[in-house]
Design brief:
Radius of gyration: 31 Å
Strand content: under 5%
Distance between the termini: 107 Å
Length: 84
C-alpha cells in the first residue's frame, strides 16, 4: 500500500475545495468527524453523548406549576353577606 504524503493530501484538499466550495467544506468536515466519533463509540461500546437515554420525569411540584390555572368556580369566590 502506498504512503500518503503531504503532497497527496494537498491535492485531495484542493479537489474537495473545488468540488464542494469554501462554504460547505467546514460542514463536511464536522459531519465527517462526528461520523467517525460515532463509529468508534459503536465499535468500542461506549455511549458518551447521553442522548439515547430518556430524561427523568420532572418532580410533582414542577408539574403542578406548569399547568394552566384552573377556572374559578362559584365556590371559590368570597361571599359577601349583607348584615343589616
Amino acid at each position: 500500500m502506498p504512503n500518503v504524503g503531504p503532497f497527496e493530501l494537498a491535492i485531495v484538499l484542493i479537489i474537495a475545495l473545488v468540488v464542494f466550495g469554501p462554504k460547505r467544506l467546514p460542514e463536511l468536515g464536522k459531519s465527517l468527524g462526528r461520523g467517525i466519533r460515532e463509529f468508534k463509540g459503536a465499535v468500542s461500546g461506549e455511549h458518551d453523548d447521553g442522548d439515547d437515554e430518556p430524561k427523568p420525569p420532572p418532580p410533582p411540584a414542577e408539574i403542578e406549576s406548569s399547568k394552566a390555572p384552573a377556572e374559578k368556580t362559584a365556590e371559590d369566590e368570597p361571599v359577601a353577606h349583607d348584615r343589616g
